[in-house]
Amino acid sequence: MFGKVEKIDHGSLMDRVYRRQRHVYDATRKYYLLGRDQMIAGLDIPSGGSVLEIGCGTGRNLIKTMNLFPSAHLYGIDISREMLDTAQKAAERAGIADRLKLAYADAARFDPQALFGRKDFDRIFISYAVSMIPQWQAVMREAVAHLAPGGELHIVDFGDQKRLPRWFRAVLYRWLELFHVTPRNDLFVLASSIAAGTGAKAEARALYRGFAWISVIRCP
């Protein structure tokens, strides 16, 4: 079960947004949250390695991760209690509840030692969450701070859509606003800046003509 911490205002907003949507989230989002499975496949988790998902949502990605990397130790945090409840039930149905630890936390500032009894992770990933988090730059920096030596941060989210028709980008952006989603067109720039400041390496990959981006920061 997930831990308890102080109430977070953004969490209340996310609870309102997803209180009902969480029940159909996976069925509807699979058509446009592109690149998630490519990102997960590229995690290349070492045997017995630890993996944290920031903004774990329904638990779909963590279950997929376990299927691909069965020896991994899984952790997830989210700011929505509604989503955490859904993730917990999904883990129970998948038979991995004993190998997955979930916690309610603000990704911009969290203590993995207090939440999970560990100080860092071999892999951390964020799937279509930086576009929903107001303080997303702080979240990325916080994530890198909790990577083990040789650890990696993987992010997949909406790209800048520049190679797609302008009308498509305009319609998509208006629709995303309804769900408090803002594509971060400077994601790659920030990742490069964080990497340069920590001695890490940043990798950038655009998918589907820029519809989705995958950003990776690899620590030394």
From TrEMBL:
Keywords (A to Z) from UniProt? Methyltransferase, Transferase
Query: What residues does the Methyltransferase domain cover?
Result: 51-151
* Alphabetical GO biological process terms: methylation
Q: Which domain of life is it from?
A: Bacteria
Any one Gene Ontology molecular-function term assigned to this protein's record: methyltransferase activity
The answer to whether UniProt assigns keyword Disulfide bond to this entry is no
According to UniProt, the name of this protein is: Class I SAM-dependent methyltransferase
The protein's matches in InterPro entries, at most eight in alphabetical order, are given as:
Methyltransf_25, SAM-dependent_MTases_sf
Matching entries from Pfam families are given as: Methyltransf_25 (PF13649)
